[in-house]
Design a protein that fits this description.
Keywords: Cytoplasm, Endoplasmic reticulum, Heme, Iron, Lipid transport, Membrane, Metal-binding, Microsome, Transport. The chain contains 16 helices and ten strands. The chain is an alpha/beta fold. It has two domains: 30 residues, no CATH class; 270 residues, 3-Layer(aba) Sandwich (Phosphatidylinositol Transfer Protein Sec14p).
């Protein structure tokens, strides 16, 4: 049955049960990406892709080579996965999705984040600050296994200037970590559909953990403010639909006033994806027992089991190579220079407060209440849309 036929039945349905049944038929029809109706936003997006790629002269996004449809055949599944992410990030507003994709392609052409991912960074500055790993048993996703990024802000507590003093270097390191996370998501091998906006969760997102052990929330050096502003803006613009849930651990109860502030700055949907807990040992309740012991699990320490960006002057576990069966895309790049460079209460674990030492304030991309830079996050609760 055609989409118009199904929609006609929806209009004629005389009961809630009939409506629900017909709507399921319509959803099933729209889930067939190989034969999308002409009126479907994803179909329209893929039909506009060639012009976008021609305009930007670049064809790589999140490590996936974007390929426009040819001779009436749909775009490759992995391309549609990327397009659907941009559609969902913009609440199915096709024009906004096209604009954001165009801007993101231009930025990637200029910034070359895949090359940044493979750069060698100073381990004395960043070596213990971030890790990428996998967990099984996460309670809030439907995935058998999830990619998780850990940001250990206490690692920068003793010397803020060393870590954040060179803002550009820190931002490049943070981009490298994000690109490594995307690589672990293995979008080049994605074979599942991402539901339309409002119809269910995206299975191709990572989880983020922000550990504030030994971090003081009462001091905000200028270096952190500068890095905050840049990263919030960059990730909002260029990394939509990459993170499903955020867990803030080792946050003292005295700082729970921040949640009230965040409710005024962020969307209801974004707040619903955030879980705050005073003890890091509570994390296993959300991410399963494969997390390290300090998070209540029985997994190996992050320094032994997780992967990181490349470091040149200290012990670190570098990024693993991509699976042999997955080829890295070769983006189209010209010599031209690009010109472009979102109220539910959040969940709170209830153990008693801990104390903090003098240290830098919240992590760069989490310093929204301090910097005043408010990312606009869109989506319904079931979308779990967040800033990356």
């Amino acid at each position: 049955m055609s989409a118009s036929g199904v929609q006609g039945n929806v209009a004629q349905a005389s009961s809630a049960d009939d409506n629900a049944k017909v709507q399921r038929e319509l959803d099933k029809l729209y889930s067939d990406w190989s034969n999308l109706p002409e009126g479907h936003k994803l179909r329209q997006f893929q039909d506009a892709l060639k012009d976008i790629l021609d305009k930007t002269d670049y064809n790589e996004m999140y490590g996936v080579e974007l390929v426009a449809p040819v001779d009436g055949k749909p775009a490759p599944h992995t391309t549609l996965v990327i397009l659907q992410k941009f559609l969902r990030a913009n609440v199915d507003d096709l024009e906004k999705a096209k604009e954001q994709l165009t801007a993101a392609l231009k930025w990637r052409k200029e910034y070359q984040p895949l090359k940044v991912r493979d750069e060698t960074f100073d381990a004395d500055k960043f070596g213990k600050l971030g890790y990428v790993t996998r967990v099984k048993g996460a309670t809030e996703t439907k995935n058998e296994e999830d990619v998780v990024t850990f940001n250990i802000y206490g690692a920068a507590a003793k010397d803020v200037k060393k870590t954040f003093g060179d803002t550009d270097a820190f931002v490049r390191w943070r981009v490298a970590q994000m690109e490594l996370t995307l690589k672990e998501l293995n979008l080049n091998a994605a074979d599942k559909n991402i539901p339309d906006y409002g119809k269910g969760p995206d299975p191709y997102k990572a989880i983020a953990v922000h550990d504030y052990l030994s971090v003081s929330f009462f001091r905000q050096p200028a270096e952190i403010k500068s890095a905050s502003t840049k990263i919030i803006d960059m990730f909002q613009r260029y990394y939509p639909e990459t993170v499903s849930y955020k867990y803030f651990v080792n946050v003292p109860l005295v700082m729970q006033w921040m949640m009230g502030v965040m409710k005024t700055l962020l969307s209801k949907d974004s707040i619903q994806t955030m879980t705050w807990m005073t003890y890091g040992s509570e994390l296993h309740k959300y991410l399963g027992k494969s997390v390290p012991k300090e998070y209540g699990g029985d997994g190996a320490p992050l320094a032994e089991s997780a992967i990181t960006p490349n470091y040149g002057n200290a012990e670190a576990k570098p990024a693993n190579a991509a699976p042999a069966s997955v080829a890295e895309p070769v983006p189209a790049v010209s010599n031209a220079t690009a010109k472009e460079k979102k109220a539910e209460e959040p969940k709170i674990a209830e153990p008693p407060a801990t104390t903090t030492e003098s240290a830098p304030a919240a992590a760069a991309e989490q310093a929204v209440p301090v910097t005043g830079t408010t990312p606009e996050v869109t989506g319904k609760p079931e979308e779990k849309a967040t800033v990356a």
